[in-house]
Amino acid sequence: MTERDRLDLRGLLPPNVMSSEQQIERFMVDLKRLEVQARDGPSDPNALAKWRILNRLHDRNETMYYKVLIAHIEEYAPIVYTPTVGLVCQNYSGLFRRPRGMYFSAEDRGEMMSMVYNWPADQVDMIVVTDGSRILGLGDLGVHGIGIAIGKLDLYVAAAGINPQRVLPVMIDVGTNNEKLLKDPLYLGLQQHRLDGDEYLAIIDEFMEAVFTRWPHVIVQFEDFQSKWAFKLLQRYRNTYRMFNDDVQGTAGVAIAGLLGAVRAQGRPMIDFPKQKIVVAGAGSAGIGVLNAARKTMARMLGNNEAAFEAARSQFWVVDAQGLITEERENLDQDASPFARKVKEINRQGLREGASLVEVVQQVKPDVLLGLSAVGGLFTKEVLEALKGSTATRPAIFAMSNPTTNAECTPEEAFSILGESVIFASGSPFKDVDFGNGHIGHCNQGNNMYLFPGIGLGTLLSGSPIVSDGMLQAAAECLAAYMTEDEVHEGIIYPSISSIRDITKEIAAAVIMEAIEEDLVEGYRGVDARELRKFSKEEILEFVKNNMWSPEYPTLVYNQD
């Protein structure tokens, strides 16, 4: 009441002063009631309605929005991020109410350096940028892709405690090749075909130069760029700017953590990872990103030399839409070429160029079947039956494609065919499977959300000028080691999303320690590099915790004691 009197608010608000807990409770009651009544069509009646209600809260009261998101992260992460964010992006023209973030388009060439100063915040720590060319597994959604950048940054705030006043979602609109959007009179973006080649590169170059000129210490996460540009842009910028690509590096890191967890679940030490036979379905940016990271991880464990790198290569069999990739493949994508099987090798295994996924699984008898194909239902009954021949005591299935409809198989399909011992992980959330005998089949969600907040926060607090492979590796290994032995033996290879802030704190600390090891630290705000290097692990964890923003209402008027 003292605050109300000092601010001349007495009589302008109802008399009862509500605590934060009461406010959250009131919002949740309202949300549950609306959830029952709201209907957005037959496909998913509640998800879009929930998103709308949460979005309105975000517009009204940012602090409260993040309080709700953090308190109920397990329930609402799938609403603000995958899978519902895919639905949001598909319907964005109809859902758009007010702009959030910045739009740089092909029409803005030559203007970007001045445009960045239109953003009101003098300090930006984190940018998530997309060109909308490959949103989740949904394809080219053009300017509607901004929804994914907004959702990603909500998780940076909730999971990593990045200050919401210092995040910036960005859409780079270079046109769209989606014919439906080109003809849609309500489409919000440029109605022209996508720019390509040097014209396209010039726009991304100009954007990067502009944001790093205004905010030299910002971190830029690239999100949902189509495969052909994802790698090129990563290689182009990663050694000069603080940037990473979540689809290539984040997906890879989460997959590596899961693969290492699967080794632990088989009762073997993580160092046995290089002995795993892995069949990979999908050779897009995510698939190749995982392959490169897995190969590097194996090579590190085998001594990190040329021979180790070559030995690691032979543990992978890659199958794309045209079948098994071998050296005989015409017009072989250069990113996939290191993983093309040698003709002599596959002849010995009874395989050939273009062999089907079922044939490959039958002949290879893999420990792991890893799906990054964006093809829903790709792991058919025949493929899963073939996996019964696996030489592993507990074969692992990773159906990692998003959103849910693109998952290569469901946990029910995997457990019903392969039995209770199989380890199952997916990219989008599924419910655990109850076997009815007191046992549970755990569905592990290998969500990038475990890693990217910690990678971003750790890079920010270390002051490292780049995001190195070692820092990404440290993040993945930290996540793999987070689980207890008991959990891993039960087939749980990823932790509960409800402890995401603690997971992020641990991963950020691991990233900082690796940056110190690689002599990349430059310090953050009041803590210089020299001081950071002297910190123990406990002090680094405390440093991380103290720099994580929490949604608290500031005290506006202090009572005099």
Automatic annotation (TrEMBL):
Instruction: Using the record's annotation, list all stretches that form the Malic enzyme N-terminal domain.
Output: 58-238
* CDD domains to which the protein is assigned, alphabetical: NAD_bind_1_malic_enz
GO MF term set: malate dehydrogenase (decarboxylating) (NAD+) activity; metal ion binding; NAD binding; protein homodimerization activity
Q: In the record's cofactor note, how is the cofactor described as bound?
A: Divalent metal cations. Prefers magnesium or manganese.
Q: Which PROSITE patterns match?
A: MALIC_ENZYMES (PS00331)
- Which reaction is recorded as catalysed by this protein? (S)-malate + NAD(+) = pyruvate + CO2 + NADH
Tell me the active site. Answer: Y81, K152
The segment(s) forming the Malic enzyme NAD-binding domain are 248-516
Question: Coiled coil: which residue ranges?
Answer: none
Question: Which GO biological-process labels does this protein carry?
Answer: malate metabolic process
Q: Which InterPro entries match?
A: Aminoacid_DH-like_N_sf, Malic_enzyme_CS, Malic_N_dom, Malic_N_dom_sf, Malic_NAD-bd, Malic_OxRdtase, NAD(P)-bd_dom_sf
Cofactor dependence is on: Mg(2+); Mn(2+)
Q: Which domain of life is it from?
A: Eukaryota
Major place of residence: mitochondrion
- Give the record's keywords alphabetically: Metal-binding, Mitochondrion, NAD, Oxidoreductase, Transit peptide
Sites where the protein binds a divalent metal cation: E223, D224, D247
**Pfam families from the xrefs?**
malic, Malic_M
Q: Where in the cell is it found?
A: Mitochondrion
What does this gene product do? Involved in the regulation of sugars and amino acids metabolisms during the night period.
- Which PANTHER family does UniProt cross-reference here? MALIC ENZYME-RELATED, NADP-DEPENDENT MALIC ENZYME
Q: Which family, according to UniProt?
A: Belongs to the malic enzymes family.
Q: What is this protein called?
A: Malic enzyme
- Tell me the organism: Cucumis melo
